[in-house]
Amino acid sequence: MARYCVVGAGLSGAVVARALGEAGHAVLVVDERTRIGGNCATERDAATGIMAHLYGPHIFHTSDEAVWRYVQRFCTMMPYAHRVQAVARGRVYSLPINLLTINQFFHTTMSPSQARAFIQERAVNNLSPRNFQEQAHAMIGKELYEAFFEGYTRKQWGLEPVDLPASVLKRLPLRFDYDDSYFAHRYQGMPKDGYTPFIAAILDAPNVELRRETTFESLSESFEHVLYSGPIDRFFDFRLGRLNYRTLDFEKFHSPGDFQGTAVMNYCDAGVPFTRITEHKHFAPWEKQNFENTICYREYSRDCRPTDIPYYPIRQAKEQRLLQDYISLARETRGVSFIGRLGTYRYLDMDVTIGEALSAAGVVLECIAGGAAP
Ligand code: FAD
Ligand code: UDP
What we know:
The protein is of the alpha/beta class. Helices cover 32% and strands 21% of the residues.
């Protein structure tokens, strides 16, 4: 009988389960979904054969050598360089904001140094921006902020940009050259056969048993330790209240040929109800010529109701306080550790998810070896 239970067969659960299983410990992994892979899950579209990213597109990017080596044990990573275009005020621009965006937007032909000076002149002098809007004003000035960020951010978060932390914008670079790569990491790629077989290969480990369509709450067995990658508030039956998320609605449509000529087109204007359209054959450039037709998803963001899939943690002051209360409760609760994006209520890229899951498994294994309760 399994001594350890891992809740969730997403990336966090798979990585932790494998580490414990490889170390010789019997592990039961449960996931309430039919498919494994959590929110990274992919599946070929029945009508076209195109690889669809079922919970929104996922691009693997990292500068962490150990994580990059780890993923390559379980899949073939194909070359992929992520680029994003954006429609604003009826024109198409390149994102993140780079020299092409600046020159097109202001109808100029500036060099890198001229553009830098030009943006500095427009930027609002503020050494400690307190929110998203102040951060944007300080970084790029009001014109670019209003065209590319104000409307999109309201749609994405359902909040005023002044009510969002500055850190949300800091994820995006500002470039004074023509580099339009969305990510600045050393490695980028897409698993050749999608994320679900990649995560299945991680789970295919000695001493690991997988039960799908099974909630943790429905189990009657007891375990020495539980590693829980579900929502931390759900584990405690929401007894202190619910941590808020944004959820996404995906409106799928088929189209002949090539719909938009690129993987991601953002729609920055407030009047357009969706945030972006993603066209999934462009996420697999090595095979996209095989498909005559195409599939796309319009993406709408809204507040998450209890029955919806949680996507983006909101993490405003109210949620931060509630999270701290749940963390205190978790510290007082023996026999369980919380992992992953839902267990820790944070936005985590996949490489960070893997790195943190490996560390969490390392801590549990050290405790077991030392005879202490994890
Ligand atoms: P999840 O994938 O959410 O897995 C949790 C699993 O636990 C689920 O399968 C769920 O069914 C199961 N579960 C939960 N509670 C229970 C329970 N009580 N009983 C049984 N099962 C349960 N990262 C990138 O690096 N690049 C990207 O391009 C990227 N794009 C993203 C796009 C979107 C829209 C979002 C929201 C995230 C994106 N990410 C991206 C982040 C990526 O999705 C996460 O890093 C990853 O999903 C984290 O895996 P996880 O296992 O922690 O959580
Ligand atoms: N953003 C925007 N317009 C865009 C792209 C991004 O306003 O065209 C804002 C938005 O608030 C988003 C943040 O910048 O949440 C960070 O961008 P990122 O691409 O990291 O978005 P996410 O992963 O949150 O979808």
